[in-house]
Amino acid sequence: MFEIKTILLFLITAIAEIVGCYLPYLWLTQGKSAWLLIPAGLSLAAFAWLLSLHPTAAGRIYAAYGGVYIFVAILWLWGVEGIKPTVWDIVGSLVALTGMSIIMFSPRNT
């Protein structure tokens, strides 16, 4: 159960971070409304809060989260931006998820 909760929390956290960065990107590069900065800020605040919900050392969380972020960013590329991932995008994402799994779910004494 710990593993499923961890992965789901990481997935939601990654979406919050990507939304928080994507909305200013739209404003800066595509001339969208500056009002997008409000939900972007809220999304980034949610991202920081979500990272704090994990019951282990912050450095370990940040390192492992990066693997899930990579995976979700590639899904975002495909689902939101409409760009089909390459085989290498998928392979890299799977490598990153493997790293996350090793960091988060390996046995440890502490």
How would you portray this structure in words?
- It is a single chain.
- The chain is built from four helices and no strands.
- The protein has 110 residues and is mainly alpha-helical.
- It has one domain.
- Helix 1 runs antiparallel to helix 2, helix 1 crosses helix 3 and helix 3 packs antiparallel against helix 4.
- It is flat and about 50 Å long.
Question: How are the SSEs placed, and which strands pair?
Answer:
Elements: H1 2-30, H2 37-51, H3 58-79, H4 87-105
Helix pairs in contact: 1-2, 1-3, 3-4
Which properties best describe this structure?
single chain; 110 residues; mainly alpha; 4 helices; 0% strand
Q: How many distinct helices?
A: 4
**Helical content (DSSP H or I, runs of 4+):** over 70%
The gross shape turns out to be flat
Biggest pleated-sheet summary: none
Estimate the mean pLDDT confidence. Answer: 93
Computed over alpha carbons, the radius of gyration is 15 Å
Q: Please identify the structural class as seen in this structure.
A: mainly alpha
The H-and-E topology, N to C, reads as HHHH
Total beta strands: 0
Write down the domain tally.
Answer: 1
- The termini sit apart by 19 Å
Strand content: under 5%
| Low-confidence residue ranges | none
